[in-house]
Amino acid sequence: MTTFFLLGLTRVGDMNEDGNTEEKTVRRRSRRLLILAGVCGVLGVGLGAIGGHGLEDRIEEAGRAEEWRTATRYLLIHAVACLAVGLGQGVAVRVRALAGFLFGVGGIIFGGSLYALCLTGITLFGAITPLGGLCLVAGWVVVAFPQRRQSTL
């Protein structure tokens, strides 16, 4: 139950483990998603700028400029997705929490593995990239097909 609580997946309407009401839980989950959106946004903008200015020659020499741009683009797109689900109204809290988590973690794994590949040339990092991509796709599936009735976790 603790893992589900940390991800924001407790049943809505119940008192959570801390004895907080649904309203406080919703605010806390939204705040976590907004923080995750901010972290992804900062990383995307910062690493994009570093790749375009500070490390441009190194990345170009390694032939990895396109991978760097892809990592930055996906990280920024999913920062916006986290922001949208964090601010979303009319969407079940559990759906927002799970989708936001998948977008944030997926963006970091996807982008991070491509950044690591570009900087180190270690191709093993490229093998990790699809795991991040799967998280991103799963986040979109959760948004597109939310659970119709609430299950107990």
Structure, described:
The chain is mainly α. The chain contains 6 helices and no strands. The protein has helices spanning 2-6, 22-54, 56-61, 65-87, 93-120, 124-144. α5 (93-120) packs antiparallel against α6. It is elongated and about 55 Å long. The N and C termini lie close together (7 Å).
Number of H/I helices: 6
Q: Count every beta strand, where a strand is a DSSP E run of 2 or more residues.
A: 0
Q: What percentage of the residues does DSSP assign to strands (E)? A: under 5%
Order of helices and strands: HHHHHH
Rg computed from alpha carbons, rounded to a whole number of angstroms = 17 Å
Average pLDDT value?
A: 81
Largest sheet: none
Helix content: over 70%
Large-scale geometry: elongated
Low-confidence stretches: 1-12
